[in-house]
What we know:
There is one protein chain. The chain is of the alpha+beta class. The chain contains two helices and two strands. The chain starts with 25 loop residues before the first helix and ends with a strand. The model is unreliable at 1-12 (pLDDT under 50).
Amino acid sequence: MKLAPSHRHRVGRHNGYARRRPEDTVLYQTIATHWPAFSERIAEHGALPSFVRDEFEAYLQCGRLECGFLELECRQLATACSSP
């Protein structure tokens, strides 16, 4: 899913904020690669507790812009920032 560009100028990088890029980490890549097969395999022998499954699914979506993000704006300071 491709996101439409924002019409607002992105302010807020001056404060040191840099978007987290989980997809670039070894941990994320390992889980993303092996989670589907592991999940299927474990389902053949029972099931993981739902909270474990939910946490892995949430981890794989956390920080990914295509999974949604929140844009905040301070009208008093005339600054904006985005947060996945």
